[in-house]
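TICKET: design request
STATUS: open
ATTACHED STRUCTURE:
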């Protein structure tokens, strides 16, 4: 996703967009942890459905979310299939392929569905956070949560220069195509793609070294503190929203433990 498109998405006018970034970041990260630790599939499914409702209120095309979910969803189903035939003691069905027999177990199916729901719920929550909150707000919130400054600075640089690397790779690919790079054999195309990737990594390493030296020359120190990004306290109404959602998350964890 290009930087301009991402900035346009995070600048929407829905309730989730207007909610304070400090509240959103804490709530979504907490919800991801809750989604991962819940043991009952219907609680995880309820959390996922709630995130889908929130996404609907943002008035964004569903295609964006589906693309975000496509890769983790496909991996999750592979895990589900593996658990289906390898985990459990109560057979559901048997598949005979000549001398080979595959037995599906009820416990494996239950655990596989739970893991699929955990993955898609966590990815959806992370996607909603990135769609509704600018990266600078997320990183500065993590700084308020006492995350080490070096990690925050590295994350900020990785985020910023990922788009530069993407643009550089796109330009190199266009140059390759303009020289009839797609008219050769498949093996030659794979070799050329490897060369482009290697050259891109070399340029990235060289550029990162120059940037780090420039930062040191300007007095960079991982322990230094700059101007505070958030200059006002969290509004009372948004604090109340945060407390309410936090209470719901706590209740879901308690229900998961006692049911």
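STATUS: resolved
RESOLUTION: sequence designed for all positions
ATTACHED SEQUENCE:
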């Amino acid at each position: 996703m290009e930087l301009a498109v991402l900035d346009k998405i995070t600048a929407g006018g829905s309730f989730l967009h207007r909610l304070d970034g400090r509240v959103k970041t804490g709530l979504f990260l907490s919800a991801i942890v809750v989604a991962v630790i819940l043991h009952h599939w219907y609680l995880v499914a309820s959390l996922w459905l709630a995130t889908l409702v929130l996404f609907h209120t943002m008035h964004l095309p569903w295609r964006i979310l589906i693309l975000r979910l496509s890769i983790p969803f496909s991996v999750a189903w592979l895990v589900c299939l593996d658990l289906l035939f390898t985990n459990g003691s109560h057979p559901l069905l048997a598949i005979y392929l000549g001398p080979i027999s595959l037995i599906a177990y009820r416990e494996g199916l239950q655990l596989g569905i739970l893991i699929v729901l955990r993955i898609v719920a966590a990815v959806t929550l992370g996607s909603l956070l990135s769609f509704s909150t600018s990266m600078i707000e997320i990183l500065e919130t993590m700084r308020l949560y006492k995350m080490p400054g070096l990690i925050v600075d590295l994350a900020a640089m990785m985020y910023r220069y990922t788009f530069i690397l993407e643009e550089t790779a796109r330009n190199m690919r266009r140059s390759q195509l303009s020289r009839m790079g797609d008219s050769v054999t498949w093996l030659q195309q794979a070799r050329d793609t490897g060369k482009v990737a290697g050259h891109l990594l070399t340029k990235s390493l060289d550029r990162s070294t120059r940037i780090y030296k420039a930062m040191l020359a300007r007095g960079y120190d991982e322990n230094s503190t700059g101007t505070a990004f958030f200059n006002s306290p969290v509004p009372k109404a948004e604090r109340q929203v945060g407390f309410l959602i936090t209470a719901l998350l706590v209740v879901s964890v308690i229900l998961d433990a006692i049911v």
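CLOSING REMARK: The CA atoms of residues 3 and 164 lie 10 Å apart. Residues 149-217 form one domain.
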